[in-house]
Structure formats: structure tokens, C-alpha cells
Design goal:
The structure is a homodimer.
Chain A (H helix, E strand, L loop, with lengths): L1 E5 L3 H12 L4 E7 L15 E3 L12 E4 L6 H9 L5 E2 L8 H15 L2 E3 L8 H12 L3 E7 L2 E2 L1 H8 L4 E10 L1 H8 L8 H4 E9 L5 H12 L9 E6 L2 H7 L5 E11 L5 E11 L2 H21 L4 E3 L14 H7 L2
Parallel strand pairs in A: 1-2, 1-4, 2-3, 4-5, 5-6, 6-14, 10-11
Antiparallel strand pairs in A: 7-12, 8-9, 9-10, 12-13
Chain lengths: ~325, ~325
């Protein structure tokens, strides 16, 4: 399977690494909006191409993996490139998925290409966990917890506060809440009871004690981001931030608790969880598996926009149907 | 969806209960090898029919759920009834799945019906957890733990020992092994290190102390079943067995630990787990969700034998594609 990558940030680099682990995949080119000479790939011998020239690769790529951001890049890029390529993205603005789906679908249907949006782990594997468990246990309750992991949005929000030089924010699920759900207690949990937030903040040089007090207060009272949570703020040096907090770990838990039995007398707990050293490296590993499915669906004439819900699991693997029935069923 | 149940044991009864929780499903008839007048259903107004008359229901049933045993019933029943009905079973003899698949497939292809074998949780949901995580993390290691739960096979094995009146055996995953896997330590685990076995045994009236000693020794040294495990044997009264050990709970854990990153520098742990008050009630809830998919696949002309690997997750739910994209993705 010949793959092109559009956008070479953390996610694009993650896709490049995932391709290395999947022998049926080869990287054909990386497309960028930057000056190609300024982009250095990990893979030898693969060209970096200005995005303006992407159409010259129209017949050289089986699936184009679009690694832009959900806010402004993907809503334009995915429908646009679905005119020419089988495409896949990791669009993660949950509220705008129906709109994005419609745009990509009409574009891919017109071109006879196959597109898949919102691949990754949330949306993605967590969505699948929710769908399967809802189908099995129609009488039940869903819980999703995120972390422990780095929230880029919350880290960015702290960095925008005056006097802050750098920051990293961890979202942490509350252990007692996890245990309560796991024990089938079906708790009603407030935002505050589900997650805590831990911040590591580097102040600008020359910051005073009163700067610390002000920054901590601004963080803890920030609406939407922190005000509804128990938040811990740690002031540290830039060296310490780089040394101990430069990774991008993440993960989380999806539960469904539900009843079976004639009188709903039996309790059941379904739990799916992820613990990831690198959020973008895992997300891109999911994307590459789904790129395989996109290619196969296109060969079988299944065109238009798809999501993880539409893909038969067997399409994700290089193993034959006989092998998976013999070894994984 | 009009459902027929063939076989009214624990699993058939579980299917009946699951149908009650799924408003799109209705139970048309239960077919039995016993005298129908001796079978009392939970549902009012549904006929119990001698299995010899099943073909008179040929056009009255959308999916026939076959609730026989894997050892001798299903290898005959599923290929046979796939000639006349869309069918689904929970065949769980892992080693014989390829053979069973081939028999059911040729039968269902000839009749233009759709069949799905090995629905449930293992095989079934655990198989899916293995397939998804293997596709995402091609470099990794799989672990499956079962329990805490009742093993019917092991309970039966104890009951066959002379002097034993009744018995229940629990399979229990070793907590420290679970923790080691969960922490990404990639341990090599022997059979003994993964599970312990706990037995509750009722002896025949008049049993002596030396009977206890002999039975305990016979259990602990029984090849295949107990010899490779740390086993605890508890002698209790029949009353205590009925009071505290009459349920059929089960569950388990499927892990895949694997590496991502250019130099495989990142660790990842994917965990899927189930905790079930009633094994047959949960298994049949999975079966009913997959019966929905079987019916839909047949309407779309997808005939022959399928497994959970072939089913797009969206086919399991009554929600529309628009709804699942808006609410579950």
C-alpha cells in the first residue's frame, strides 16, 4: 500500500513511524505547506513535496493520510483531496462531525474515492468501545475518563496567560471515581468528581511571588478550562519542564455498565482502556490500520465517506480471513 | 426482527431475556427436542414447538438463534438449519472453528442465507479486542486472562470424582500478573502464574476425613484441569453451595502491549475487560446484537458464513448511521 502524508507535525511523523512497523505499507511522499528543503524526514529516500504539486502524485498514492488540525485544516483539506485521492483523517471536533462527514462524503462519492474521517482513539477506538457496548447492553450507562495525559488545549490556555513562558497540563482521572464505576455502583459524577488537572508552569524571567499568586489564580478560575475542576499548579524551571514533561502521553477509560436478565437482575461492566506513552504515535498507528481498510474498501467499490463504525474489523489486518479465524477468534 | 430460539437451556433462556430488552426484536417460537408441554417459557403467548416441526416456521422467522452445545449439537445443527434460516450460534471450540465455518458457509451459500458462528464474548468480544489491537500494534504481545468466574468444564470434572455430590469451580486471574501486564512489564507467564483455581465441593453423605483427603488429592493432581495450577479445595454443605455458589458469573481481560515510535521507544497498553454477573445472559446479549447484523447483511445480499470479524459495527445497533456519528463517534 503506497501512502502519502500531508502535513509533517507530530501526527505526520507518527504516521511515518507507524509505516515503518507495517511491512505492507510504503511511504511515497510527504506533502507540506512549508519550504520542502526545511523539512527533514526520518525515512531515507522519500521526497518532501510542496503541497501545490500534490496532484502530480494522483496516480502514485493508494491512500493520502491528512495530518492537519481539526480547527481549520481538515474541514478544507479532507473534502478537497477526496476529489483526487482515497483519504483518511483524524478529525476530532465531535460536534462538527456530521457536517464534516457530509462534505467529505459528497466529494468522495463524486470522485469514486473512499474517505474515512475521525480515525484515532477518541474519536476512534473509544467510539467503537461505546458502540459495541451500547449494542450489547441497551439498558446501561456510559462513562468516559481521559488521562493520565497531556491536554494540548489546556497547556495552550495556560501559555496565553501574561507572564507565563511555558506550561504543560495533565488531565488525571479520579481513582475513586474509576473504582466506583468499575464496581458497578453506577455513580452520578460531576465534572469535578471525574478528573483533576495538574499544571506545570514556567514563569518569565524575573517573575515575583505576586506574579505566582496572580497566575495561579488566573489558571484556577479560567472558565471552561479549569474553573470546574480541582486544579494543582506547580511552578518549575524551564530545565525541569523539558526534562520531565516533554512527552505527550495520554490514554483513558471507556466503561459501560448495564443490566441483563429477565428482571434486570444481573450487573455487567465492560471496560476498554488505553495507556499510551505517545498520543500522536498511537493515533497514527490507528490511522495506518484504517488506511489499509480504506484501500481495500475502495478496491471493492465501497466509495464515499466512512467512519470506524462502517469498517468490518477484518479489513484492518494483513492477515487473511482464514488466519484470523484460526488464530484470533 | 422475528427471532426463533432452538434449545432452551441457560443460553436459550438468556436469549429470551435479551429479546425483552431489545424493542426491535420479537420472539416467534422456541424449538426443543424435549416434550414441548414440559417446557415453560418466561414470555407469555409464545409457542414451544417440537424441533421436528421447525420447517413450518421457515417463512415466519428472520433469524434462528441456535443455543446448543459446541461438542455435539452445533456441528450438526448450524449447517443443517442454515439451509432454511438465517442462523447464529456461539460455537466455542476454538480449534474446530475453521471446520465448522467451512460446513456452515457451504450450506448458507447454497441456500442464500446468512449465518454467523462463534458469537459471544470468547470467542466474540475478546476476539475483536485481539484483532483490533493486533492491527494497531503489530509489534506487541497478547495476554488473555479469564475470571473471576465459574468454569462449567472444571466443575463437571470435579463432579465425576467418586464420592463427590456437587461442586463449583472458579477460575481466578492472579492479581500480580494482571498488574505486571498492565504496567507494561511484558512478563513471560506460565499457566500457574496466570490463574488460580478455587473449588467448592459437596461430598456424598457419610463421607469420612480420609474421603476428603483423597478427593482433594484427586482434584489437585488431575491432569489438564488442575495439575498445572495452584488449586484450593473447600468442602462445604449442599445448602451453602446452593446459597452462595449457584450463580454463573464470569469475565476476563484481554491485553495487548506494544511499541510505537521510530525506534520503538514508546510503550502502549490496550486493555479490554468484562465483569459479568451471568455468563449466559451476557453471551446471549451479544448474540442478539449480532442477530440484528445477520438479518441486515442478509437483506443486503451478503450471504454465507460470517464471524464477528466480518460485521461492520454499525450493523449491531438500532440507531441510524446519522445518530451514531452524532452521538457515539
Amino acid at each position: 500500500m503506497k501512502i502519502g502524508i500531508l502535513g509533517y507535525g507530530n501526527l505526520g511523523k507518527g504516521v511515518e513511524c507507524a509505516i515503518k512497523q507495517n511491512p505492507d505499507c510504503s511511504l511515497v511522499a510527504v506533502f507540506t505547506r512549508r519550504d520542502p528543503s526545511s523539512v527533514k524526514l526520518l525515512t531515507d529516500g522519500v521526497p518532501v513535496v510542496k503541497v501545490d504539486d500534490i496532484l502530480s502524485y494522483k496516480d502514485k498514492i493508494d491512500v493520502l493520510i491528512i495530518c492537519g488540525g481539526s480547527a481549520t485544516d481538515l474541514p478544507k483539506q479532507t473534502p478537497e483531496y477526496a476529489k483526487y485521492f482515497n483519504v483518511i483523517d483524524s478529525f476530532d471536533t465531535h460536534a462538527k462531525i456530521p457536517e464534516h462527514f457530509a462534505n467529505v462524503d459528497s466529494s468522495a462519492k463524486a470522485s469514486g474515492k473512499t474517505a474515512l474521517i475521525s480515525a484515532g482513539w477518541d474519536p476512534g477506538m473509544f467510539s467503537l468501545a461505546r458502540l459495541y457496548s451500547n449494542a450489547i447492553l441497551p439498558n446501561g450507562k456510559d462513562y468516559t475518563f481521559w488521562g493520565k495525559g497531556v491536554s494540548q488545549g489546556h497547556s495552550d490556555a495556560i501559555r496565553r496567560i501574561s507572564g507565563v513562558k511555558n506550561a504543560k497540563q495533565y488531565t488525571i482521572p479520579v481513582e475513586s471515581a474509576l473504582d466506583s464505576v468499575r464496581n458497578g455502583e453506577n455513580p452520578e459524577l460531576t465534572t469535578r468528581q471525574k478528573h483533576t488537572r495538574e499544571c506545570f508552569v514556567v514563569l518569565e524571567d524575573g517573575a515575583t511571588e505576586s506574579d505566582k499568586v496572580r497566575v495561579e489564580k488566573e489558571i484556577k478560575e479560567m472558565p471552561n478550562y479549569f474553573a470546574d475542576y480541582d486544579t494543582t499548579v506547580n511552578f518549575i524551571s524551564e530545565e525541569e519542564l523539558l526534562k520531565n514533561h516533554s512527552g505527550i502521553p495520554h490514554g483513558g477509560f471507556v466503561f459501560r455498565t448495564g443490566k441483563t436478565g429477565w428482571n434486570k437482575e444481573f450487573d455487567n461492566v465492560i471496560e476498554y482502556s488505553l495507556k499510551l506513552d505517545s498520543n500522536p504515535a498511537f493515533t497514527s498507528s490507528v490511522i495506518v490500520a484504517y488506511a489499509r481498510a480504506v484501500f481495500r474498501m475502495n478496491k471493492e467499490g465501497m466509495t464515499g465517506c466512512k467512519t470506524v463504525f462502517d469498517v468490518p474489523p477484518a479489513y484492518l489486518t494483513t492477515m487473511s480471513d482464514e488466519e484470523i479465524r484460526a488464530h484470533l477468534l
